[in-house]
Design a protein that fits this description.
Blueprint (H helix, E strand, L loop, with lengths): L3 E2 L1 E5 L4 E6 L13 H10 L4 E2 L4 E2 L5 E6 L2 E6 L6 E3 L7 E6 L5 E6 L2 E6 L4 E4 L8 E3 L4 H7 L5 E3 L5 E8 L5 E7 L4 E7 L9 E8 L6 E3 L9 E7 L5 E7 L5 E8 L5 E8 L11 E3 L4 E6 L6 E6 L5 E3 L7 E8 L4 E6 L8 E6 L31
Parallel strand pairs: 1-4
Antiparallel strand pairs: 2-3, 5-6, 6-7, 7-8, 9-10, 10-11, 11-12, 13-15, 14-15, 15-18, 16-17, 18-19, 20-21, 21-22, 22-23, 24-25, 25-26, 26-27, 28-29, 29-30
């Protein structure tokens, strides 16, 4: 029997907890997970039922969560906090707030949708997703091998969505076996074996409007390459697109105009074995620069790079690795990151100022331990 999860609130000051949403009162035991949702939960190792994930609104006033295939919003500042946003026979998946908190995007039946929270208006952004063709969903290799679990990305100004369209038609069909306590099943599944064709992937950008239309980006790349990471630059007009060779020994970081008018290679990473992917690209809104992580010295370290690729400045160095950026305060120039600065047996929170050289500030650490950290806005509190 899988564990069923509810939504709870914990008060830090008085150390008390209360249930916000009892998932059993909202669940329909007869509604089954979609194939896409099953695959996503398997990749994320989610084995519980009920409210298995939730998302804070950008202003911290509401919580968004999927349950039983529909979307629910819990507002923290009203007397009637719980609102059901969707009522459909199928599952909504990959749910994201827009950065301004005015819209919610999701994927339903292999197509992208948005909901305007103020009026509850739902708009379908794509309509050609069906069969082997999907919009806004990551392909199998991206989820399983690259740890990329999303297939679309909001622009910082909330006016556009970049997304990947995936066509699995070229991928060979194999059989998958599912063995339960009382049954055995064999299912067809498209699986990209080594040396066989991968899914065809293309990048598009769609603007939020009454008549949404996709602009396809003509990326200059070998069709055998992967798109392991996509990010937006802070100007909301350019994308940071990573292009990785199929042998995983070369990776290009490209600055691509969202209208497809230009593509510039900013950095090239190479390895005699393979390139380790990371999630440490951060575009800086206050300057024409971004933060990047590279193993070019043999260890993963942080760099400040000009948006045109004209300069690259190391921020950390040494025989140790940075693992993840946890927060950036652009007003002070401070970057918080996790890493193994002293020993690989301990993971701690460390900080550096991106406008200066490496200072090795380890004051935020507890020695002899391994921590994971979260630093929510406005970067004044650390949770670990």
């Amino acid at each position: 029997m899988f564990e069923r999860l509810d939504l709870w609130e914990y008060h830090i000051q008085d150390a008390t907890a209360r249930m916000l949403v009892d998932s059993s009162t909202l669940m329909d035991s007869g509604k089954l997970l979609s194939d896409e949702e099953k695959a996503r939960r398997e990749r994320l190792r989610i084995f519980q039922t009920g409210i298995v994930e939730y998302f804070w609104s950008p202003d911290g006033s509401a919580l968004l969560f999927p349950l039983n295939g529909d979307l629910w919003l819990y507002r923290l500042d009203t007397d009637e906090p719980l609102v059901q946003l969707t009522r459909s026979d199928t599952f909504e998946t990959d749910i994201q707030f827009s950065p301004d908190g005015q819209h919610i995007a999701f994927v339903r039946e292999q197509n992208l949708f948005v909901i305007e929270l103020a009026g509850g208006t739902e708009t379908q952004l794509t309509s050609d997703g069906s069969g082997t063709l999907s919009n806004g969903l990551p392909e199998f290799i991206a989820q399983e091998e690259m740890h990329r679990y999303e297939g679309y990305w909001w622009s910082p100004d909330s006016t556009r969505i970049a997304y990947l369209q995936v066509d699995e038609a070229p991928v060979e069909i194999s059989q998958r076996y599912e063995i339960d306590a009382d049954q055995f099943g064999v299912y067809d599944q498209r699986y990209p074996f080594a040396g066989t064709p991968n899914a065809e992937v293309r990048l598009g950008v769609i603007e939020l409007s009454d008549t949404p239309d996709t602009s396809w980006i003509p990326l200059q790349r070998d069709p055998e390459t992967y798109l392991p990471r996509i990010n937006w630059f802070a100007d909301s007009r350019h994308l940071a697109v990573q292009i990785q060779s199929r042998d995983q020994q070369n990776l290009l970081l490209c600055r691509v105009a969202c209208d497809g008018s230009s593509q510039q290679t900013l950095l090239t990473e190479t390895s005699a074995t393979w390139i380790n992917l990371h999630n440490n690209f951060r575009s800086l809104a206050a300057t024409d620069e971004f933060i990047w992580a590279s193993e070019r010295t043999g260890y993963l370290h942080l760099y400040r790079v000009a948006n045109d690729g004209s300069s690259i400045t190391p921020l950390t160095e040494g025989d140790w690795v940075v693992t993840d950026i946890r927060g950036i305060d652009e007003q002070t120039g401070k970057i918080w990151f996790e890493g193994f600065a002293d020993t690989p047996l301990e993971k701690h929170l460390t900080s550096v100022y991106h406008r200066s050289a490496w200072i090795g500030n380890a004051a935020e650490n507890h020695r002899g331990r391994w921590f994971s950290y979260d630093i929510p806005e406005p970067r004044q509190t650390v949770f670990h």
